[in-house]
Design a protein that fits this description.
By secondary structure, the chain is an alpha+beta fold. The protein has one domain. Strands 1-2 form a two-stranded antiparallel ribbon. A hairpin with a 6-residue loop joins strand 1 and strand 2. It starts with 9 loop residues before the first strand and ends with a helix.
């Protein structure tokens, strides 16, 4: 029996969508740096909403302080 190495997993470049392997450090087509990229989704909807609500809360508190000091 011969042990064969598994082929590297393939993914897509986040900039140009060219197929790249998990061993690639740069995209062969556009040269994008692929080191350190997470393989999960880049956008988290709950995190987005908590961040947006934080900004709204800060805005409302600032508005209330300004209104109270006039």
């Amino acid at each position: 029996m011969s042990a064969s190495a598994a082929p590297p997993a393939t993914d897509a470049c986040p900039l140009c969508e060219t197929a790249v392997t998990s061993a690639d450090e740069r995209c062969p087509a556009c040269g994008a740096d692929l080191v350190g990229l997470a393989s999960g989704p880049a956008f988290s909807q709950p995190l987005f909403w908590w961040t947006a609500m934080g900004f709204v809360l800060v805005y409302l508190v600032t508005l209330a302080v300004v209104a109270a000091t006039r």
